[in-house]
Amino acid sequence: MEYVTAVPHPRTEAAASARAGRRSLALALLCGALGAAVALLATRQQWSEGTATVAGGAFPLTARGSDVTGVPAALAIVGLAALVAVFAVRRAGRLAVAGLLALCGAGTVAAALSGASDSSALDEKAAQASGDTSATVDALTHTAWPYAAAVGGALILLAGLLALRYGRLWPAMSGRYERGGAPGTRRTAPSTDPDRPEDLWKALDRGEDPTGTGPA
């Protein structure tokens, strides 16, 4: 008894790849844009608070994310630029940009989590407020905003991983400006009439030999 093995139809495989590409592209764009927005927003919020002893009394101090570290905001901006640049490159260039996008996300997570317990920004403010360079902040507490920035970084990281995995299925910018395009994509050069001077000048502008004997 013979068994017939079903071979997947090329069109079915192509349709499945196209669907996977569209879904991963939409998810990557959403994660990358949302992650960058969350990270940038979080760095503008209050990350920590405490008090400094000034003239025998407690002086309240607060520090925003940008006071603690500027790394998450900077990496979020670079990651957003990398997300856009993914569509401007192909093959190895796309992999490189996708890797940069993933690294921006990982760096944002690391910097945000490191800043969640950092007290150096408030210590510096305590020293300025008290006039004592050795003064440190008292009653230090932290908010949840550093962890929100870390979530934003995780979303950027996810966008980078999706670009690494499915980026080859994503569309790229129009190739009409690229040299050496696929056969059939080049425009057919208009015919040149040697008796018309304007045609000769146009051919020279295109880099063609109006006499037809070789390149201009």
Features:
mainly alpha; 216 residues; 56% helix
Description:
- The chain is mainly α.
- The model is unreliable at 175-186 (pLDDT under 50).
- The protein has helices spanning 10-43, 65-68, 71-85, 91-115, 120-130, 145-166, 197-205, and strands at residues 46-54, 57-64, 138-142.
- It starts with 9 loop residues before the first helix and ends in an 11-residue tail after the last helix.
- Strands 2-1-3 form a three-stranded antiparallel β-sheet.
- The chain contains seven helices and three strands; from the N terminus they run H-E-E-H-H-H-H-E-H-H.
Basic shape: elongated
What is the N-to-C order of secondary-structure elements (H for helix, E for strand)?
HEEHHHHEHH
Spans with pLDDT under 50 lasting ≥5 residues?
175-186
Classification by helices and strands = mainly alpha
Helix content: 55-70%
The largest sheet has its strands arranged as: 2-1-3
Q: What average pLDDT do the residues reach?
A: 81
* Number of β-strand runs: 3
* Span between termini: 69 Å
Instruction: Give the biggest sheet.
Output: 3 strands, antiparallel
Number of helices: 7
Proportion of strand residues: 5-15%
Q: What's the gyration radius in Å?
A: 29 Å
